[in-house]
Amino acid sequence: MSLHHSMTREDVVASDREHLWHPFADMGRWEREDPPVIESGEGVWLTDMSGHRMLDGTASLWVNLLGHRRPELDRALRHQSGLIAHSTFLGSTHEGAVLLGEKLLSLSPPGLTRVFYSDNGSTAVEIAMKLAFLATRVRAKKQGDPPPSRFFSLDKGYHGDTLGAVGAGAIDRFHALFGPLVRPSVTTAAPDCAQCPLGLVRPDCDLACAELAVSRIRDYRDELVAVIVEPLLQAAGGMIVWPKGFLSRIAEAARSEGLLLIADEVATGFGRTGTLFACEQEGVIPDLLVVGKALTGGYLPLAATLCTEAIYEAVREDPGTFYHGHSYTANPLACRVALATLEVLEREDLLSTIPEKRRRIEEEWRPLFAHPFVGNVRMIGLVAAFDLCPPPSTSSAPGSMVTLSEWTRQIGEMARKRGLLIRPLGPTLYLIPPLSATVEEVGLMARILCETVKAVLPAPSSP
Q: CA–CA separation, 126 vs 364, rounded Å?
């Protein structure tokens, strides 16, 4: 097949509707809608087959860190493809995997000494859960106890879509259908300040939500393998930004009860929350750290599970072999691109540019702070979000959620026409720009979204 166009845009859409199945898509609606057909990208811009340019407002689902067609990443990819694209990691190794492993461990919190590669965040979480179970099993056997087999996680948590990760997750619309297939976690309410389970408001917050979680951990301690959390930001759960101190309280509880701590930083890692890893902000050192998404700058699938030497030694002792792996484990192309991504991130000191860009978003979104249909505007790092709120007269009326769904659909469509591609999470609208986006580009994203919301949902006139 030619590398040049062999199909028209209409042919692509028609064939897609006939043959393909998209993730997290209402296929009945998909078959009726006219989707963007992305053809190319450059920097923070995407271009579809109609020639329409759009800002990549969600960093291609949170993976793009340095922009599209990044020269350094292109060079790394070409260099490695000139050597070999892939060789098995079962029984052999290669330089790219070794160098990347050294780099990841040098950047990660102290005490992590081993790297296990995989293909995506969900599989990396599965690996962390299995390793935690195996290590805990060794300790239980030595004490003559049955091994625990449950995990502690948070409501509205998302750790992936493989079955182990589904068991650790707690978003009903994603996970409820698969309940009969999984071992459910012990959960407690997420620290969602917009919907505080204790009915408190921010000035009155004394982290009582953390005490609820700590109590739950203590009550189920004998059943638990580990505590697994998405530090500081539950992204897929609705861009829930945690109150300061919640993470450290949970970590302290895990330590005091002798439980392992898994930090799922697939979405939060590599600068998304303002530091390289979110757990750094509260001085938390996990036993297992899971990374993915932005690791290769959005170029290739690659994830990694980092763990302590104690976990490695426990599994090395019994069963000796970790029976888990993937055909494309430590893919050489992905490892080289990941190395280049981390080098650019450090060299350009992109983390230091985040505060100015966040201030620009705040300036552009100032009109939304008083908008009657907008609430809970929040930001962390270069992640910015707000929720759409139906007017009081319809908030409890039948079909009110349909109204919210229609609002987000209209806002998404209009934003795309105005040059911004976004993907709402239920009633939550958000921006996650590539870290390489300029202040002006970030400001333009924020302005388009703000103006689109005002156009679709004009504030009612005062009587």
A: 40
CB-CB contact of 424 with 408 (8 Å): yes
**How are strands ordered across the β-sheet holding 374-380?**
374-380, 383-388, 428-431
Q: Is the pLDDT of residue 203 over 60?
A: no
Nearest alpha-carbon partner for 210 in 222, 225, 228, 198: 198
For 56, 239, 411, 436, 438, the CA distances from 432, given in Å and listed in that order, are 9, 10, 17, 11, 13
| CB-based contact 175:122 (threshold 8 Å) | no
Residues 6+ away with beta carbon under 8 Å from 357 = 382, 433, 437, 439, 442
Write the DSSP symbol of residue 235.
T
**In this predicted model, what pLDDT tens digit does every residue of 107-125 receive, in sequence order?**
999 999 999 999 999 999 9
Phi first, then psi, for residue 291 (nearest 5°) are -130, 155
Mean pLDDT along residues 51-69: 98
User: Can you tell me the distance from the alpha carbon of 82 to that of 68, in angstroms, rounded to the nearest whole number?
Assistant: 21
Tokens 């970590």 sit on residue: 251
206-230 confidence digits (pLDDT tens): 788 999 999 999 999 999 999 999 9
What does DSSP say about strands 45-48 and 38-42: parallel, antiparallel, or unpaired? antiparallel
Nearest Cα to Cα of residue 296 among 59, 61, 63, 58: 63
Average pLDDT over the chain reads: 93
Greatest extent of the chain over all pairs of C-alpha atoms, in Å: 75
- Torsion of the alpha carbons at 192, 196, 197 and 198, rounded to the nearest 10: 140
How much of the chain exceeds pLDDT 70, in percent? Answer: 94
Mapped onto helix, strand or coil, the DSSP state of residue 276 is coil
What single-letter amino acid sits at 249?
R
Q: What are phi and psi of 247, to 5 degrees?
A: -60, -45
